[in-house]
């Protein structure tokens, strides 16, 4: 591609014509403002362009607690699958005993660990097991911010309404109330831990708009909010000496004869050794599923986002909800090829950049809720065909980032979006001068394991927090509520797990009986034997190599 | 619309969602992974190239977007004796690249109870006395894939200027390349982490936040919540329309928040 | 408005020796000069940078000289004695042999090349040669009449010869400054003896043997105050006094005396309270 194609300012020459049109219409669009937001009826109509609505992407589950409920094919393939391990081949003598076992090392898992400790569980009684490194997660990439209603013009009730509305009113109200009421406390606690949220010259927090919110309430740490929050609490975690096992994903939960969750079977990815961990309570904080590439979309998610927790919980009998909707972030990078799918934070639109088609026309209000925004962009590209086509055949529309410098002054992008500015600079594009090309990308798991306001599931001993949960965001999550979800429910799950564990004895027996039961159900349903889960890691190895691969050392 | 559009989107993205197929490749380059030559497609990232060559990452891949530092890579380019550093997920392959990944840096971290430390720069030399060994050689700055002024922030740390450390080190992704190259064996990112936390703690909690916390504790919103949670789904929907439309929240021009 | 002079603060001036720097800025301000901090300066490495078998350690000092050069300046004023000693000796060392500059420049490929033209001087030299003690005398508001003060040079201002700002055995520069301020200099036998420097960390007895003796000898000669230019000397002297105050006198930086005499505050709030009472007791008219 590179040799035949001349690049000007990072873009192929043929794209310059469209870039010119965008530049030409900028002044007019700055003055006029973007198109008006859609009415609720218009929103309903455009959603038919959303990948969740196109037929063929989902199917009803045929096994498990949610039998009959709709889930995306890729998720169903994993839920309706055989375990990686043969239960009869696992020797279940306990290797490690802990009070609390936490699965997942992102924002939610780390919060759960700290707050279980705050609740009185000693550090050596807590173990956090993670598939990759502590911190490898979607959390660390969160760029936009964390919502909290802490300004006089705002209130937790208004925040509540925003969350319910954005979620199409399918969220669990008591869970949402917990989310929004805890938010101000979370911000204070993080600040006292040393997290650096952006402030104005008076020392008050700078708070931004997000899509679908009726008040500006997003607290940000430049565009590294997730990273800032996570590295602060991770430092605190390390100071307290809480147990940590990296590169040891769980491949099954363990249950006692009564069906209560009492630990997990961990697998050391580097040595192939399995470890039996017995615990009085387990907190599942395993994150999302972007690496399933639902409907073939690229994703913003990290390498390990493969729905492992969903699979494990389902086998243990946990009820899931709202899996029938998947959040596609409206603006993933569409060019250059090297960064396709990567998150272009909503903050870019929050700071004033408009969404503009090939001809330089703004065709949608930039801050609709994400599903609406994504659908509008897909329609513009594939039905109206007013898009730009990249050299590899991807379609996209422009996000007019230079507008940000016009509205807020020169230097705003470098100051407020340093990560993004740096990313584009690495690939030769200056987003202060030229617009960037975007297309929806698979981003967030709206639903998941059903939770209550305390982070409890329907399975005793199993607690959940973060992206793996369902009920917080309904059918669609708003920006800035995902880090909030992790922080609020990570804390609540940690506290609840600690309460549950206190005064409880270890179960006399740990079993994989729930897995055996599940296998029976799979056989009954005729599920093909080759289907196995959890996935653990996606596979991007070249096709040619895979065709020539043999596993010799085993 | 329908299946047709979805199929077109799926096809267009195949190179990114599955392994690369040779038939889609137009141009090739050769890179050397730990000394072994591999022919890989041009115009992809180092990470994608290594996967194309058959490596399935266990270590060395994380967020794949430049935020987590998992894919720190050290390499040379053809004909140049200088060592360079990069993040594999954010760097295009070049013909002749000669590379290795550094997925882990052995760096001790001192433990501290931050609530017991003064919120100024004095804890820095206390927990990291080795920063006094800095010879100002700037090797750390040259190693940083985020182009941060690492030496400058260590110098600021030496002076106890935690605000400056926070400012200069903010975009640090803790990849470890600075620490592994430093002749004084300083672990820069741990120093910076402590400095940032101290600085954050030195800033007072804004009054508006304290005020809101007090209100919540006093139950100011309990009545409103009771009302709103007793609504049916339809009533809630209606209230949402009214609240959003009346206050004009959703239909604003967009941009930064202002106090009303 | 006023004239500007580029200076190198060094780490101590930013932390434990703030009085030295703040008083200097105040005094120079009164004399019509603005002290401009060298931008993006880095730690000079103190004497450890001066290992002659290892050019790497000269990077720190030389980088500061490059910064100076890039501002178009040929002179860098230093206030801390140790930083002065280090920077001046490093400048001299790398310029002595052209190959040294070449190697350092090659390593620091991210910086412009150092051309070897920067002169490093101590603030005392600047006061004596650029501003002149006569001018200073003319601007004194609170002459320190009757104040008997002993200068303590330590090592760094005088040795080795390439850095010496005055005769290494019988220097007079500080005493001449005291006279200009209206004070009475007192000769002390140990004024050019080492305070113990970093050796005190391993051999605690040196504190009283060296620093303690310096103070007691000055006191026996009738001094009310010992004045220095070096944060490390100040630290050791104050420590000796704290451990055993009998027969000792308080310690001050020369810039504090200067600033106070010129009518400023003299950064007294940062110093030993006895210093304030001594200086204000000597206040005469104004």
Written account of the structure:
Chain A is α+β, with helices and mostly antiparallel strands and 554 residues long. Chain A has 16 helices and 22 strands. In chain A, strands 5, 6, 10, 11, 12, 13 and 21 form a 7-stranded mixed beta sheet that branches. Chain B is an alpha+beta fold. Chain B folds into 3 domains: 25-101, Beta-grasp domain (Ubiquitin-like (UB roll), Roll); 114-202, no CATH class; 216-245, no CATH class. Chain B has helices at 3-12, 14-17, 46-52, 122-127, 139-143, 150-158, 162-169, 177-181, 188-202, 207-217, 222-229, 233-246; strands at 28-33, 36-41, 72-76, 84-87, 98-101. Chain B has a 5-stranded mixed beta sheet, covered by helices on one side. In chain B, helix 6 runs antiparallel to helix 7 (162-169) and helix 6 (150-158) packs across helix 9. With 286 residues, chain C is of the alpha/beta class. Chain C folds into 2 domains: 3-123, Up-down Bundle (Glutathione S-transferase Yfyf (Class Pi), Chain A, domain 2); 141-281, Rossmann fold (3-Layer(aba) Sandwich), CATH 3.40.50. Chain C contains 12 helices and 8 strands. A 4-stranded parallel beta sheet of chain C has the order 2-1-3-4, sandwiched between helices. In chain C, strands 6-5-7-8 form a 4-stranded parallel beta sheet, with helices on both faces. In chain C, strand 5, helix 8 (173-180) and strand 6 form a beta-alpha-beta unit.
């Amino acid at each position: 591609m590179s040799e035949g194609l001349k690049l000007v300012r990072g873009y192929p020459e043929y794209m310059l014509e469209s870039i010119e049109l965008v530049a030409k219409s900028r002044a007019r669009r700055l003055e006029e403002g973007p198109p008006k937001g859609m009415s609720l009826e218009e929103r309903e109509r455009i959603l038919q362009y959303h990948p969740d609505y196109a037929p063929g992407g989902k199917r009803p589950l045929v096994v498990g607690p949610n039998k009959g409920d709709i889930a995306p094919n890729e998720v169903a393939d994993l839920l309706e699958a055989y375990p990686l391990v043969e239960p009869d081949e696992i020797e279940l003598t306990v290797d490690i005993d802990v009070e609390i076992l936490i699965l997942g090392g992102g924002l939610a898992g780390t919060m759960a660990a700290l707050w279980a400790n705050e609740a009185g569980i000693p550090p050596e009684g807590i173990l956090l097991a993670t598939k990759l490194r502590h911190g490898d997660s979607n959390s660390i990439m969160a760029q936009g911010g964390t919502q909290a209603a802490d300004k006089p013009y705002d209130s937790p009730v208004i925040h509540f309404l925003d969350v319910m509305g954005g979620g199409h009113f399918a969220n669990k109200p008591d869970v949402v109330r917990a989310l929004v009421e805890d938010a101000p406390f979370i911000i204070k606690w993080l600040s006292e831990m040393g997290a650096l949220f952006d402030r104005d010259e008076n020392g008050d927090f700078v708070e931004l708009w997000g899509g679908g919110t009726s008040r500006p309430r997003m607290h940000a740490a430049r565009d590294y909010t997730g990273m800032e929050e996570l590295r602060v609490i991770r430092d605190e975690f390390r100071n307290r000496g809480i147990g940590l096992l990296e590169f040891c994903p769980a491949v099954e939960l363990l249950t006692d004869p009564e069906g209560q969750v009492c630990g997990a079977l961990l697998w050391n990815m580097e040595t192939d050794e399995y470890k039996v961990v017995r615990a009085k309570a387990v907190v599942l904080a395993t994150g999302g599923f972007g690496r399933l590439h639902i409907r073939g979309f690229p994703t913003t998610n990290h390498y390990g986002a493969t729905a492992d927790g969903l699979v494990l919980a389902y086998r243990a009998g946990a009820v899931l909800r709202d899996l029938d909707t998947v959040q596609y972030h409206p603006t993933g990078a569409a060019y250059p090829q090297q960064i396709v799918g990567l998150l272009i934070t909503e903050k870019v639109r929050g700071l004033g950049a408009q969404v503009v088609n090939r001809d330089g026309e703004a065709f949608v209000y930039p801050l609709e809720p994400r599903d609406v925004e994504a659908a509008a962009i897909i329609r513009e590209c594939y039905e109206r065909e007013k898009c730009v086509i990249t050299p590899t055949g991807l379609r996209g529309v422009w996000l007019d980032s230079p507008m940000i410098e016009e509205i807020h002054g020169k230097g705003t992008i470098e100051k407020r979006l340093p990560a993004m500015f740096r990313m584009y600079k690495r690939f030769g594009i200056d987003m202060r001068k030229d617009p960037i090309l975007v297309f929806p990308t698979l981003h967030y798991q709206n639903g998941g394991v059903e939770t209550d306001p305390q982070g409890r599931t329907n399975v005793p001993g199993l607690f959940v927090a973060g992206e793996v949960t369902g009920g917080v965001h309904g059918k669609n999550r708003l920006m800035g509520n995902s880090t909030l979800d992790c922080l609020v429910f990570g804390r609540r799950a940690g506290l609840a797990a600690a309460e549950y564990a206190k005064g409880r004895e270890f179960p006399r027996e740990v079993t994989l009986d729930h897995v055996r039961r599940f296998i029976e159900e799979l056989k009954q349903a005729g599920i093909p034997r080759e289907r196995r889960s959890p996935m653990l890691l996606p596979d991007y190895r070249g096709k040619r190599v895979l065709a020539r691969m043999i596993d010799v050392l085993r | 619309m329908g299946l047709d559009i979805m199929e077109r989107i799926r096809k267009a993205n195949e190179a990114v969602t599955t392994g690369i197929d040779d038939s889609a490749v137009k141009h090739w380059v050769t890179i050397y992974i730990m000394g072994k030559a591999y022919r890989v497609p041009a115009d992809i990232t180092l990470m994608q190239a290594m996967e194309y060559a058959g490596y399935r990452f266990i270590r060395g891949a994380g967020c794949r977007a430049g935020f987590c530092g998992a894919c720190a890579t050290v390499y040379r380019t053809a004909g140049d004796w200088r060592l360079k550093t990069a993040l594999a997920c954010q760097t295009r392959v070049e013909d002749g690249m000669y590379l290795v990944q550094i997925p882990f840096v052995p760096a001790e971290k001192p433990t501290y109870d931050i609530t017991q430390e003064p919120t100024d720069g004095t804890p820095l030399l206390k927990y990291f006395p080795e920063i006094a060994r800095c010879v100002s050689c700037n090797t750390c700055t040259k190693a940083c894939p985020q182009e941060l002024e690492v030496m400058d922030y260590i110098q600021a740390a030496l002076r106890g200027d935690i605000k400056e450390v926070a400012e200069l080190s903010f975009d640090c992704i803790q990849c470890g390349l600075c620490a592994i190259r430093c002749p004084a064996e300083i672990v820069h990112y741990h120093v910076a982490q402590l400095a940032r936390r101290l600085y954050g703690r030195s800033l007072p909690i804004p009054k508006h936040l304290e005020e809101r916390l007090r209100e919540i504790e006093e139950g100011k919103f309990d009545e409103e919540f009771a009302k709103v949670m007793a609504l049916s789904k339809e009533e809630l929907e209606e209230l949402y329309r009214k609240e959003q439309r009346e206050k004009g929240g959703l239909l604003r021009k967009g941009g930064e928040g202002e106090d009303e | 408005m006023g004239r500007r002079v580029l200076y190198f603060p060094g780490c101590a001036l930013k932390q434990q020796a703030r009085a030295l720097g703040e008083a200097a800025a105040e005094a120079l301000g009164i004399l019509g000069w603005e002290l401009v901090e060298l931008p993006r300066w880095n730690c000079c490495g103190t004497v450890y940078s001066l290992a002659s078998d290892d050019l790497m350690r000269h990077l720190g000092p030389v980088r500061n000289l490059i910064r100076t050069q890039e501002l178009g300046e040929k002179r860098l004023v230093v206030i801390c004695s140790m930083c002065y000693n280090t920077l001046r000796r490093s400048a001299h060392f790398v310029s002595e042999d052209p190959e040294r500059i070449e190697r350092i420049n090659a390593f620091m490929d991210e910086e412009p090349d150092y051309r070897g033209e920067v002169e490093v001087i101590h603030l005392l030299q600047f006061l004596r040669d650029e501003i002149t003690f006569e001018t200073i005398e003319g601007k004194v508001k609170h002459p320190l009449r009757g104040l008997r003060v002993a200068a303590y040079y330590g090592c760094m201002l005088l040795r080795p010869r390439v850095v010496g700002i005055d005769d290494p055995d019988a220097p007079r520069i500080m005493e001449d400054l005291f006279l200009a301020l209206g004070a009475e200099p007192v000769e002390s036998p140990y004024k050019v003896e080492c305070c113990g420097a970093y050796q005190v960390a391993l051999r605690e007895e040196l504190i009283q043997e060296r620093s303690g003796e310096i103070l007691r000898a000055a006191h026996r000669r009738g001094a009310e105050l010992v004045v220095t230019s070096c944060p490390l000397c100040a630290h050791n002297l104050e420590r000796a006094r704290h451990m055993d105050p009998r027969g000792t006198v308080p310690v001050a930086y020369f810039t504090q005396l200067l600033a106070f005499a010129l009518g400023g505050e003299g950064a007294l709030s940062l110093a030993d309270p006895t210093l304030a009472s001594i200086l204000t007791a000597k206040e005469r008219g104004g």
